[in-house]
Amino acid sequence: MPHFITDECTKCGTCADVCPFEAISEGDDKYVIDPDICTDCGMCAEECPEDAIIEEE
Q1: What confidence tens digit (pLDDT) does each residue in 28-57 have?
Q2: pTM here?
Q3: Residue 15 parent element (H or E)
Q4: How far apart are the C-alpha atoms of 27 and 32, rounded to whole Å?
Q5: 29 partner at 20 to 30 Å CA-CA among 4, 6, 23, 42?
Q6: Which structural domains are found in the chain, ordered by start?
């Protein structure tokens, strides 16, 4: 199940910097994860300083 970036995102870019698959890009209000590219490795969630990345249910 891919991860999801919540509205708590402050657009710091840390998640995009650590994603080994380049599945994260900057959106209008927050960063977004492409579910077709995300492999659910969790590296982005571990590095997010705002805990704004969760697993999608």
Answers
A1: 999 999 999 999 999 999 999 999 999 877
A2: 0.90
A3: helix 14-18
A4: 6
A5: 42
A6: 3-51 (3.30.70.20)
